[in-house]
């Protein structure tokens, strides 16, 4: 039984297999992100002008939104139960923070927008969970760099590689030893000499104290013990690497699954997800991003259960998976990412099933893999506008729209 | 009795008189700030290179540090008690956040640096207090703008001014009424006509519901009641204005007091304080900023009680003012701004008293207004370096220095 659906760095590793199997068994996934801000330039309505082309919006968001942080990621998995004729859901809320992994890792800077922070604060958002216990992440390039660092260090240790005592980018050879120090140097057992003298019988390792002070531990070991320690060290390093890649592993799993992913106002979520966990966004929204990374389409959808009830869509039958905490639509928890993802998934099911009412004979359940859904994938740009008047008769245009993404070709992960 | 020395927006207004009188009675003040980051470009050691001139450091900090947020401000006031021969201290910790005041107020963006946030998180810093309950503030220009907004609205209401029904920047006059609507328009009692018909007997006011929906309330009142309501409204508006100016009022009080203000590594604190609560920093650090706003000097000082104990300085006698929570130097709370300010004040007293040991006969107490202190004001640039080796023998240079500022000419406040 999960205590709640919120995951921090402390319980992330233990939850990963649960997340992986939830993604694996799901028919479709719903995601949602919460950000430290929306726009560092134009106001939000100018940034998401309903009359912009997808290319225009992409360019605006890339220019003005990518320096904010996606710091809460909601994932809700939907699995159809044929026997019970309902969907079984599992919801996850991940708090995310780019905690520097070590002294050479990137020190990320991100912008906060006070109106966005104030809005999330008014919804009871827990900033301490983000900044104290957020799950770290690396993008693909950072992951490759860290992996290379580990491999270089491994090949240098225990004399198995070709250790370089020359600074990189230096044209000088090793320094010559002054005459008066030759005898002393000759007597000194430095680390290189030790491992040269005892090529099989020593285990040399750089360790860190709790205070992050580094020291070298040299142990006399026989061949078998040395190999055992070597394996242990490699496993520990692999564990550290996995911890550093952190939340990006969930994104890799979503991408690899090839499952349908739905969201609301989702272009921003998709762009942040690629930018933060994958790579720098291409300058122009080309076919590359459509075909090679993720394919998205715009879909009309309004994130509100009232909308579902008043429109021809029927509220779908869902149950929470056993052992998972459940959301209640009667007690709205809008703007918790997991809840928003859950509601978005409900909307998607309602609309998919609505398409089934046009069939002869009508069908109550339309699976997410149905051909009826296909025309909306990467093909349709539909915006739904609601015009409503406030009591002071100022007219407000509320653009409600939904972007659904569909991963066709999973993007490559670093190995 | 104050529960603790931390102030949020909820208890700020009630604490203001306590803060004002603490500043008023003090012999000198110590301040310290905590920031959302230090550098958006070069690493911190390059930014605060001990070999830079004050001008170079100023330019670097202005370029790379001002987009971060000063979100905790510590103030410690020191008052000498002649009878008891000790200092009486009062410590305040203010959480600060630029919560947008209304729909036209600026939507501040600020940068966070993940290493700084991570460091504060590891010290138990409470980010929820900042983002949920931080005290707002306005700089001088924003305060003037808001004051003008209020005055313009006041002069337009109740027909006392010259209300303009023409959009600003419009060259057109009022539109002409089409023939077929003349009769209807003639019958309509719009707000302008009402206050014209009842110039003394009506009170017109724009109010807001809890949902921020605005509506106009028109009440029939006699002349006396109308004036009473007018006064009430003005008082309420003045209160709102003061709430919006918020924490800047503490900075105004410090500046007006003309008291000696001490800090450590203080150029950054002074620059953030001016930038955030006063005005945009001048392009180049000219005499203007020295003479007209604040005068600062650099002083060698290390923020650590161990330093005080091992150097010739004696630990000073201080007691916490009655009703104020006390800090204990045995339980270090470094990097809570109020504690850091307190420790800095202790260091200053020790060093000031140390100067007294050179007098004949020696004097145990040197007041902060003493002529012995004067040579260090705006005159001295002294850096103290400690070179120490870590256990792994990598050499680390720790630059320890302290900047003390002294307000000579208080900067003008908006009226």
From TrEMBL, chains A, B:
Molecular function terms from GO: 3'-5'-RNA exonuclease activity; RNA binding
Feature: compositional bias, Polar residues: 156-173
InterPro entries: CAF1_poly(A)_ribonucleases, R3H_dom_sf, RNase_CAF1, RNaseH-like_sf, RNaseH_sf
Transmembrane segment boundaries: none
Record's compositionally biased regions (Basic and acidic residues): 146-155
Ranges in a coiled coil: none
UniProt-annotated stretches for the region Disordered: 146-179
GO BP, sorted A to Z: nuclear-transcribed mRNA poly(A) tail shortening; priRNA 3'-end processing; siRNA 3'-end processing
This protein's GO CC annotations: nucleus
SUPFAM superfamilies named in the record: R3H domain, Ribonuclease H-like
Assigned protein family: Belongs to the CAF1 family.
Name assigned to this protein: Poly(A)-specific ribonuclease (deadenylation nuclease)
Organism of this sequence: Salmo trutta
This protein's encoding gene: LOC115147670
